[in-house]
């Protein structure tokens, strides 16, 4: 199947590591032009150097911008940078660092407020500003979590914020659909990134934590970042042109609902 990503211009926030990085790699393999972001200038520089080799092989191009999703100026800066470089923007993957772990009984007001700014409002703002700037055929994908459908033990903030973001994505799909712009959400379960390794380590016994999680996954393993990247690239491509308003789990069958 041809994803028809050749020369398409995509923004990938949180693209220096993990799920964003894996998606950027897949898009570049398909010939897209990709702007990746992260908060660390050094990590952005390193990612651009590494991704340039993938871009060369795929016929695409990569650009890096240091930016925080929580910053109200970020969407305009990213749109401007991509447009200056390539003259257009066709879509975005909106990913961000996960919120701190902790149960409802222990998470502080400060932690809720900080996570709301980057995970919730940052995501809403990026989706709104980039989504309304996209031409017909544009596609947005928001990286959320299986916590949209069922609580993840010990991740109160994710459980609290992500279901709301999924409904924002669904509402935006209604609003932008008549203009030919699609909006979908991705719900990763346990994909083997730094974030998941940190969550396992934080339990005090990473091996036992991973074994317990894997036992709940029908495919009996963590997903590989590239397995997530391929699904995200499909959602961002015109190969999924009649898919919008969907929350798509990428979880090896883990979620206990349809
Ligand atoms: N991996 C999974 O299985 C899984 C499951 C459920 C949900 N999720 C969610 O999916 C998202 C991505 O997860 P991941 O595993 O890819 O995480 P990760 O490995 O920690 O990577 C996060 C990426 O986002 C960047 N980032 C963090 N905060 C940012 C901000 N405020 N603005 C811009 N960029 C930021 C990081 O770079 P800097 O730190 O340099 O900014 C990095 O490039 C997270 O929200 C996570 O909670 C992941």
Task: Offer a few descriptive terms.
7 strands, binds NADP nicotinamide-adenine-dinucleotide phosphate, seven-stranded parallel β-sheet, 258 residues, Rossmann fold, alpha/beta, globular, 14% strand, 8 helices
Please provide a written account of the structure.
This protein is an alpha/beta fold and 258 residues long. The chain has a single domain, classed as NAD(P)-binding Rossmann-like Domain (Rossmann fold). Helices cover 47% and strands 14% of the residues. The protein is built from 8 helices and 7 strands. The protein has helices at 18-29, 41-58, 74-86, 109-133, 156-176, 194-202, 206-215, 225-236; strands spanning 9-12, 33-38, 61-66, 91-94, 139-143, 182-188, 247-250. The protein has a 7-stranded parallel beta sheet, sandwiched between helices. Strand 5, helix 5 (156-176) and strand 6 form a beta-alpha-beta unit. Helix 6 (194-202) crosses helix 7 (206-215). The model has no long low-confidence stretch (mean pLDDT 98). NADP nicotinamide-adenine-dinucleotide phosphate is lined by residues 13-14, 16-20, 37-40, 43, 68-70, 95-98, 118, 143, 145, 188, 190-191, 193-196.
């Amino acid at each position: 199947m041809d994803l028809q990503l050749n020369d398409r211009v995509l923004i990938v926030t949180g693209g220096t590591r993990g799920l964003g990085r894996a998606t950027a790699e897949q898009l570049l393999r398909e010939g897209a032009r990709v702007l990746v972001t992260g908060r660390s200038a050094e990590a952005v520089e390193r990612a651009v150097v590494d991704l340039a080799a993938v871009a060369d092989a795929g016929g695409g191009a990569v650009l890096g911008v240091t930016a925080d999703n929580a910053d109200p100026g970020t969407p305009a800066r990213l749109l401007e940078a991509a447009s200056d470089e390539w003259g257009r923007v066709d879509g975005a993957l909106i990913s961000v660092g996960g919120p701190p772990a902790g149960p409802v009984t222990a998470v502080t007001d400060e932690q809720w407020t900080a996570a709301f700014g980057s995970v919730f409002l940052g995501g809403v703002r990026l989706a709104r500003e980039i989504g309304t700037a996209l031409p017909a055929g544009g596609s947005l994908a928001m990286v959320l979590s299986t916590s949209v459908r069922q609580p993840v033990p010990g991740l109160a903030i994710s459980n609290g914020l992500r279901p709301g973001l999924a409904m924002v994505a669904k509402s935006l799909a209604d609003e932008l659909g008549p203009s030919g712009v699609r909006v979908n959400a991705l719900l990763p379960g346990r994909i083997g990134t730094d974030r998941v390794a940190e969550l396992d380590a934080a339990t005090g016994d990473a091996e036992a934590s991973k074994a317990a999680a894997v036992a709940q996954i029908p495919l009996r393993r963590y997903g590989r970042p590239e397995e997530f990247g391929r699904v995200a690239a499909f959602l961002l491509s015109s190969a999924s042109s009649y898919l919008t308003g969907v929350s798509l789990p990428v979880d090896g069958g883990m979620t206990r609902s349809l």
